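Objective 1b. Sequence-to-structure analysis of ArsR family transcriptional regulator.
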Amino acid sequence: MTKTDIHTQLFTDLAEIARTLGHAHRLMLLEHIAQGERPVERLAELTGLTIANTSQHLQHLRRAGFVETRRDGKRVLYRLGSGPVETVLASLRGYAEHMRVEIRELAADPANAGGRHDSISRDELLDRLRTGGMTLLDVRSAEEYALGHLPGALNIPTAELERRLSELPPGQEIIAYCRGPYCVLSTSAATLLEARGFRVRRLADGFPDWKAAGLAVES
């Protein structure tokens, strides 16, 4: 095989990978699987797809190595593949940020995601975890929290936060996080907590990006 043939095959393979990812439903499925392994029925529920449609997309992702399966009794659970899938997803989000004016404006809006004036970067949070004196708050669902979360994080889903404020340590700064830079759960949580007099900041990215960076997680 000539060098030209090798290069052609390489880019053919890259094009095939791009085709596999070139569907919104598959990207949605990958984002949910990035939170932790789940059966097809739950993935269908989370994405609003039929089970048949979900299964079809998962098979495409499995053939390309983006997801793997394991059997748990009668259930088949899907998890991310062994490659740097989370890094690929983070790169796609980053490129979309760069290219799409709408997303750049969303990120720049103080009422949203990473553009909040009080957001905290991953590196800054790592420093804060070493020094302590703050409460790390995971506002995702209990299901997602159980599948994996940042070390030492307290889980209070946003929908339950109003009635569970007494569980938050008084006087400590709250660092809230959720699924990613455009997840509105932590934004809503931060708004509610600020209105109740808490000092609160929002992690600029979320759990999948933390895990993709190779940082420690608990489950």
